Amino acid sequence: MRFVWAVAAFVLAAVMIGAGIAQRTVFQGPKSVATGIAVHDTTPYILIDGAVLNTSSGTPTFRAAGDGPVFAAYGRTADLQAWLADASYESVTVGAHGKVKTTLVKPDAAATTDGTGTGTDATTATAAGTDTTSGDAAAGDAAAGEATGGGDAAVEGATAGRNPAGSDLWLEEFQQDDLLIAPLSIPATMSVLVAADGTAPAPSDLSVTWPVANTTPWAGPLIVGGGILMALGIVLYILGIRHVRRSRGPRRKGLPMPVTEPIDIAVDNAEKGVISSGQTGRRRALTGRRSLIVIPAVAVSALLFTGCSSDAWPDFAGSPTPSPTQTVVTQEGQNDPAVTESQAERILSRIASTVADADTKLDLALASTRLDGAMLAERQTNYTLRTAIADYKAPSAIPTKPVFPLLPEANDGWPRTVMAVVADKDNKTASIMLMTQQDAWSDYKLSYMSNLEAETTLPDLAPSYIGAPIVAPDSPFLVMQPDQVAAAYADVINKGDESEFAAKFDATGDQFRTSIAADRQKRLDEFNATGAQTGTLTFASAAGATAPVALATLESGAIVAVSLTETDTVQPTTGDAVIKVGENQTVKTLAGVDQSATGFTTTWGDQLFFYVPSQGSTEKIRLLGYASDILDAKVIK
């Protein structure tokens, strides 16, 4: 009976192991599915809609190959379409029945620099509808079907030559020969732009590959269970052999035998010259052979067990239940934020790198590619002074990260504004700055940057993934319109507590106002000590030429960035008096002379950030940060 059970165990083990191995091999199916994208080979740009990458489940892998380096970037579909508004390009979308189709889009004649052109369809080509499957992740090499129609007409009206590399619009970009992006998981609201250099035709060898989740949850239990049954069968087989050997067949009854004495076999054999190992030796030998049979069976089971990966076992744990998190509700109709956190850090790094290079070379044209408004005006003066004065100090470097917090404008159009607070670990300070992008083809430019005051508390801001709307300069929903803040604060600086606007601004912790008052008094005392009999020194503050920018906060208030100018005027009071600048190399360089019979004006530029509460609030307007630098010095005419 033991042999019967052993054979049954062997047969069942073979069936179970075979079934488990078959699930992991011949019955498992392909590991990936790939589809080719058919495009014309004459357009400089290809726009692949995010829905194309989501036509199959799983995380897609995108491949693009051409004759040289391949460029690819992804971003919001509306942004990419705006960037391509004045160019011909291939639009790859998902058509009826889930088929991938290619449409030639020609430039819109009405497309302008506001980036709102939409383009017009010209030719449609449907990609080969047959997906290719492969057991290898390299199935992305599947050949793309040939596009039909269009031909050479695909480039008609194209605006080629604009290289997409380095644009601030892209959330992420890639460039290399035989480009492979794995994984490339984007929502349907985003798209992928593929090009060579904007002049040469875009790569036409495009494919998308998705992994196929072919789990075999019972392969592991079958293989391991079969191994256990095989070991059990071997044990039963050994026990059967042992039982047969012990039985020695049937025993017969014989005639009565005389009683004899026990024979000492060892002595008898010794007398005959024979050495016998005895029955104990035979049993030990049999036991040793059985061990050799059992050990390989256990080893085979262990090898089969270790060969099963996690997808070969049932998932008894199930999917974890996500814990609830606090959410911020987006206002109905609100647009998407202008940038993401990683995008903002990349843009800041590019600005800082370009400006640092311009500062080294004293290249104002280079600086103007990344600076605007008050920031550019201050750089212009600094370069002039450093050209004439050898030891004049260079501007401080622009900090890049960490960014905390980030407040992008929620805007699908242009211009777009982004506010960021960046820490400077070296100087243990923090800077608040505003960047603006004028249109889809422009880079972001830094227009305002100030140092936060030591005890500054920022108001509550919307998360960076939601953004904030821009506040109109003449908004009546704040305690003061943004376009009036600069002039009102300048009046407070000029008149102090006697100003009609003094009660609207919080003087607590306003170090800027305090430092201006102390500096003016010090210089006035010094001037009066030597020149009060022959001249006058006056001070005046006024709103700057740079337009104010305001972003909304969660309390319906706004962070407002403004510019001010501070002007010092020195004039003689008698006809015989002459105003000399003395050792002041800054004024001498900017004015071009070291003395004047009419006097001098020296102008400083201030960049200020305020928190302006909402209408009806009991809070006052608070100064958040400030920066000041010389702008100009002139002879009074």
From TrEMBL:
Residues 336-634 form the DUF8094 domain. It comes from Microbacterium alkaliflavum. The keyword Repressor does not apply. Keywords: Membrane, Transferase, Transmembrane, Transmembrane helix. GO terms for molecular function: transferase activity. Signal peptide: none annotated. This is Glycosyl transferase. Residues 109-161 are annotated as: Disordered. The chain crosses the membrane at residues 218-239, 292-313. The keyword Secreted does not apply. Residues 109-146 have a biased composition (Low complexity). It comes from the Bacteria. InterPro entries: DUF8094. It holds the Pfam family DUF8094.
